Every structure is written in structure tokens, then in C-alpha cells.
Amino acid sequence: MSNGTEMGDNPSEKMEVVRSSEVLFTEQQLIIQSLKQELEVNKKRIAELQDSIRRLTADFENYKKWTAKERQTIERTAAESLIKKLLDMYESLGKAVSTKTDTKENDFIEGIKMIYKEFSRILKSEGLEPIPSVGLPLDVYKHEVVMQKVNDEVPEDTVLDEIQRGYLLNNFVLRAAKVVVSQKSAIPENTQNSEKSEEDKGG
């Protein structure tokens, strides 16, 4: 004999189960929403960190380039300073080699020639090369004018003579060549006037 409504058919129990399910679903939705928000925050943090890493990497690469350039500048400056000090000795050896001497001094001169040749090889390997001058147009970056001479046979500002040789070191001017350049002879004023009068007569 039935004693009334069974437990599973109790409406209040069913409502309680439904409410519990809704609460559980709501809680799950809140948890999911919270996780999504946290995920978005973490994504932003990761993006910011990646951006920071990229910027730091770029800064470090720029720093390496800068230090390499600074090192090259320091090395070049040191080389320039040393080679400048050696130029006078080098040129003195060159003059000694080209000077005519007695046969008794031939052995000594041959020794000087060997030293000069080796000296030249070392300086060339370091990037030293003479600046071409005589017969060329004046180059204000490579030539220092110390004198002008009248010469109508060549274009004006042609290098006629070299007083002191100039040098390039790795394509940079180490020492400008001191040179003599040509200039045109001045046309006398009376000649200009006579030429003008001849033109007037012809007109």
C-alpha cells in the first residue's frame, strides 16, 4: 500500500535540484568568465614581455654596433697617431735610399734598402698609401696649397710640384700633400683696352 507521494516525485525536491543545478551552472559560468579574463590579462602581459624583449634585443644589437664602431675609431686613431710619428723616419729612409753614394757604402745602402722595403710593406698592409699629386687637378681635401706659379700651359689649379708627400690611411687623409699649383698669367690692362678698341673698330 502506498504511503503517499514518493520521494522522487516530491515537487519541492525537484525545485531544489533545479535550483542547485542553476547555482552550479552559474558558478561554473563565473569561473569560466574569470578564467577568460585572467587569460586575457596573461596574454597582454606576455605580449608586453615579448615587446620588451624585442626592444631590449634591438637596443643590445645597436649597442654592439656602437661599441664595434667605437673600437674601430679608437683603433684607427691609435694607428693614425703611430704612423704619423713614423712618417718622418720612413721618408728619411726613402731619401737615404735614393741618394747616390760611393761604392764603399753599397753594402750599407743595400741594408737600408731592405729596411725601407720592409717598412713600406708593413705600412701598406696597415692601409697607408701616398696621395697622387703632380699633374692632377687640385683636390682641396687632399692637397694643401703652399705656393702658386704662373703657368699658361696647363689648366689653372693644376698641381705642378709636391713639396711634401701626403698620405691616405684606409682611405682617410692622414696628411694632406703640400703642393705648388698653377695660375694663369694676368692680362695687362692696356692689352685688354687694345683688344676692346679693335672690337669696336670691327663693329
Describe this structure in words.
- The protein has 203 residues and is an alpha+beta fold.
- It has three helices and six strands, in the order ααββββββα.
- The strands form two sheets. A three-stranded antiparallel β-sheet has the order 1-4-5. It has a three-stranded mixed β-sheet with strand order 2-6-3, with no helix packed on it.
- β4 and β5 (172-175) form a beta hairpin.
CATH topology of the domain at 130-186: Nucleotide Exchange Factor Grpe, Chain A, domain 2
Percentage of residues assigned to helices: 55-70%
The fraction of residues in strands falls at 15-25%
Question: Count the strands?
Answer: 6
Spatial extent as radius of gyration: 45 Å
Basic shape: elongated
The largest β sheet comes out as: 3 strands, antiparallel
Instruction: Return the average pLDDT rounded to an integer.
Output: 80
CATH architecture of the domain at 130-186: Roll
Spatial strand arrangement across the major sheet: 1-4-5
What's the CATH first level of the domain at 130-186? Mainly Beta
Outline the fold blueprint.
Layout: H1 11-98, H2 106-125, E1 128-130, E2 143-150, E3 159-164, E4 167-169, E5 172-175, E6 177-183, H3 189-202
Helix pairs in contact: 1-2
